Structures are given as structure tokens and as C-alpha cells.
Amino acid sequence: MANEASERLKLVGWAVVLCALAYLGIVLLVLVITGLAVVLVSVGIPLLMLTFPAVRSFADFHRRWAGNVLGTPIPSPYRPRPPGNALVRLWATARDRATWRDVLWLFVNGIAGLALTFVGAFEGVLGLVFWWWPKKSALYLDAKLIKWMLAPSEKAQLASRVRELAESRAETVDSQAAEIRRIERDLHDGAQARLVALGMNIGMAADAVDKDPQTARLLLAEAQAASSQALAELRGLVRGILPPVLADRGLVGAVRALALATPLPVDVEADVPGRLLPPVESAAYFAVAEALANVIKHSGAQHVRVQLRHDAGVLHMTVEDDGRGGAVPGAGTGLRGIERRLGAFDGRLNVTSPPGGPTLVIMELPCESSSPKTSPSSGTA
56-87 burial by CB neighbour count: b if 16+ within 10 A, else e? Predict the structure, then answer.
């Protein structure tokens, strides 16, 4: 009974808050109209520069509230703001259809939304007296109205997804080009130099074998050492491109081997097919490797848990540590690299890392298995 009363009091509180915000929305609508009316006067442009961001924040707040009520998040429909000065950003905002849908919603919210939230407050008060009174019917309708007017259209969602994929593909191409240049540099400065020295030593040994056998033996010993070093460098280079353990044992085996080499206790739990497509395995392996490297470098954690699960055509990967938290994608911790690597396969990265921890890195990679599903396995590496 106490929980029921608390919930109904919250509904009354939300109804009162939304009523007050509806009046604020009317004020914002008046400011927009005023700014448009005097846009040719010097005061119009600064007024719109201040009002449009406020309208977006106002609409985003209502999207979050409606998403919580409906149980389905309402994504933001706005186009990315282009780089440039304030006038360029204002022009881009004015050309965004979502901006004018917000303005239209301000008008509707000032009438229908205000009426619905007022009725919602009335219903909440009645609900405190009559327990059989239905809960949040008017507020639910208000949330539906917000979703109908403020959610992005299917066309806008498709355009946004295409834009994200185009950006991820471009970043992938750039990263691949940089990787090729790195491999070329490593070959030129490392193995190639060793092989050139090897050839020179063998040539000098051939010239000295009859005249000075002792020198020839020394040159051959140096050539043998150079060949061993060149072989080690080539192996290291190949291992950076595709670890042999990944090719031999698949993703689960490679991640377990990676966990064993990590200077922290790492629990690995896996429920995946025997093998996935090679490009997917490579992307997943290096994503987990980068996540573990971030834990070692930045978290101060004492324990890590890695989970791999393949379900409904999606590979789910989580890396959770008990460190200090505070990880932010794009802040130079390598998470941006993981996001770029997964984005090339239409994958997703989500990071939850409050100050004080724990940090949970969730990665999703759409893929199909190339072999029958094996039994679930788990263990501690």
C-alpha cells in the first residue's frame, strides 16, 4: 500500500512539473516567433542563437521522460552540427526539419500537453483517494503525443544510420591505410635491414672462407644471429596482423590465451559457436585486447571479467573491471579505436563507467556462425 501511494504521489509530482514546463514551452515558442519576426534586425539572430539550443534541450528532456513512461527510448532526431562559427551552426539548425517539429510541438504542448498533464494531476489526486482509479492514463497519452511529434521519422533514422556507417567506413579505410604504412615501415626498418645485413655477411664469408677461415666462421655466426632476429621480427609482425592462436584455436581460445598473458586475474566465460568468420573473429579479438589493455593502463583494477556470447546473429562481448572508473569514449583511452573497429562491421560500443567504478564495456558485433554451436563453456584464466 505504501509503495502504491508513493507511486501515485510521483505521478502527481510529474503532472505538476509537466504543467509548469508547458508554460515554459509557451515562453520559448513566443521567443522563437519573436526572433523570427525581427531576424533582419540585429537582435533577432542573437535571440535565435540562444532560443534554439534551449528548445532542443527542452524537447530532449521530454523525449527522455516519454521514453521512460513508454518503456522505449526516443532517439534524438537532430542532424550533427557542422564545424564553423555561430552563424554557420545557426543556419544548420534552422535548416534541420527536426527544429521546426520541435517548434510545432511547443505549440501543441502548450494546448494539448497542458490539458493532458492537468488531467493527469487530477487523476493522480483521485488515485490517492480511490485505489481503483487507473494510473497515468492521461500522462501516458501525453507521452504518446511526445513520441509521435518528437521521435525521428523512419527516413531520418535511415539517413542517420547511413551517415554513421559512411563515417565508420571512412575511418576504417583511414586506419587500414595507417596500418599498411606501419607494416611497410616495420618491414623496411626491421626484417629487411636484417636480411640485407645477412646477405652482406654471407657474401663476405664466402670471400674469406679460403683466405681467413676464422673470419668466415665469425661472419657466418653473425649471419645466423641476423637470420634469427629477422625471423623473430617477422613473426612479431605477423602476430600483430593475425595472432596464430586466433587462427588455430578460434576466438574463445585466443581470448583465453590473452587472459593468461594479462597481469591481472581475468575470468573468461564463453557461449559462442566453434568458429566465426575470420574477419569477425579478428575484429572481436582485437576489441577485447584493446579493452583489456585499457584496464591495465588506466583502471587500477584488481580483477576483470570477460564474457562472450553469440545469440540471434549477434556476438555480445563484455569486459568488466573493479577499477576506479571514469572511462570516457574518445578521451584517448583506446575506446574510440574499439568503436571504430566495431563500426566497420555495423557493431556497437557502450561504456558505463561512473567515478569510483566499476567499468563495464559492452560490445556488440552482428555476425553469423560458420560452424555448429558448441556447448557453453566458462573458466578462469
Answer: bebbeebbebbbebeeeebebbbbeeeeeeee
Count other Cβ atoms within 10 Å, centred on residue 192. 14
In angstroms, rounded to a whole number, what is the distance separating the alpha carbons of residues 231 and 22? Answer: 72
Phi and psi for 336 in degrees, rounded to 5? Answer: -65, -35
Instruction: Enter the pTM of the model.
Output: 0.48
Q: Which DSSP category does 303 fall into?
A: -
Question: Where would I find the beta strands (DSSP E) of 150-242?
Answer: none
Of residues 159, 3, 10, the one with CA closest to residue 75: 159
CA distances for 134 relative to 11, 17, 103, 120, 322, angstroms: 12, 20, 32, 11, 44
The Cα angle at residue 308 between residues 304 and 313, in degrees rounded to 5: 155
Per residue in 19-50, pLDDT (tens digit) is 888 889 899 999 999 988 888 877 888 899 99
Q: Are the beta carbons of 291 and 319 closer than 8 angstroms?
A: yes
Find the farthest-apart pair of alpha carbons in the chain and give their distance in angstroms, rounded. Answer: 113
DSSP, collapsed to helix, strand or coil, labels residue 336 as helix
> What gap in Å lies between CA 144 and CA 138, rounded to an integer?
10
Question: At how many degrees (to 10) do helices 44-70 and 97-108 cross?
Answer: 70
Say if residue 305's pLDDT is above 90.
yes
Identify any residues that bridge with 309 across adjacent strands, giving them in sequence order: 271, 316
Report strand pairing: 304-311 vs 266-271. parallel
Helix (H) or strand (E) holding 294: helix 278-294
